[in-house]
Amino acid sequence: MSLTGGEIAGLIAAVAFAILAISLSISIFKIGSVVSELNTTVEEVNKTISVVTKNSDHLLVEVEGLLNKSNTTLDDVNGKLSLTDPLFKAVGDLGSSVSDLNNATRNLTTQLSGKAKPGSTVGISRKIGKSVSNL
Questions:
Q1: 122 pLDDT more than 70
Q2: Other CB atoms closer than 10 Å to residue 6's CB: what's the count?
């Protein structure tokens, strides 16, 4: 049996086509398994996102409630602090008055003890002393 050149070429083409068909079918099966795994992964991701979304929604509600309570508390504290402003103003005025009283007392003591600085007004005690000595 002798094959002609055309028949040998046809046989080679048929074998090449068979090899090509087999490799394509193997690749398609592998791609099919990859797509199947990808579908499974996407389903798991969707489930996870759903759970995370539900949990984050619940958490956001809790955080909103906490922020509302914090704002209420802060407003209350600010209101109470504003009520103490007159107290601190009064304490400041009292401090100024005490300082003025200390200065006045120091000046009076200096004048009464006769240790007034030269050029300052003559102390009351000197005036009284001179008046008494003249009697």
A1: no
A2: 8
